[in-house]
Fold this protein.
Amino acid sequence: AQKITQTQPGMFVQEKEAVTLDCTYDTSDPSYGLFWYKQPSSGEMIFLIYQGSYDQQNATEGRYSLNFQKARKSANLVISASQLGDSAMYFCAMRENAEGGYSTLTFGKGTMLLVSP
Amino acid sequence: NAGVTQTPKFQVLKTGQSMTLQCAQDMNHNSMYWYRQDPGMGLRLIYYSASEGTTDKGEVPNGYNVSRLNKREFSLRLESAAPSQTSVYFCASSVGTSVIHEQYFGPGTRLTVT
């Protein structure tokens, strides 16, 4: 079973509108972290936002917020007031504990967001 | 503060050639990682180093070796390159391997094996 599922290969949104990018995850570990990264056409991976499994409140970072629904195992990224510069690939990722006390990051396949004027 | 740097940015190899991808971070992070990114596959972990002196296999380690040279540097070696290793390679680092630690990525190396 996939650990991270992003069901939207591509999304379109008009400038200044809000958009939600979906992410569901699969883990039996009570302690995990959820992350969103942005990859623009230039190729670099940019960390956007983090949500811990024990966090009571949804994470927010500027125009980015994470809609965390633990029971549904979803961690959707909400971008408010979209800008042309938001056009990029977005990856959801999860860290969970593995043997030896270490944890590694597992990525979804990504969602391509295009913002139109 | 350069963050995570990678060299080279681009490389073309012939099948059977070897090469080493270099990665360095100046954030005093303990943990470092190598990923590959293929179209439609997201990023997959090749190897990681939880701390200086340790390395462990990730999801797709076959055909690769790594060396954690010191706290700053983590290299990835392809001993005998194959066309299936054509990919974009990312190095990343984090404070530690706790679930709360975000990873910071380098700019990537685009490798083509012909």
User: Anything to note?
Assistant: The interface with chain B takes residues 4, 31-33, 35, 37, 43-47, 50, 52-53, 91, 93, 95-97, 100-110 of chain A (CB under 8 Å). The radius of gyration of chain A is 14 Å. The mean pLDDT of chain A is 93.
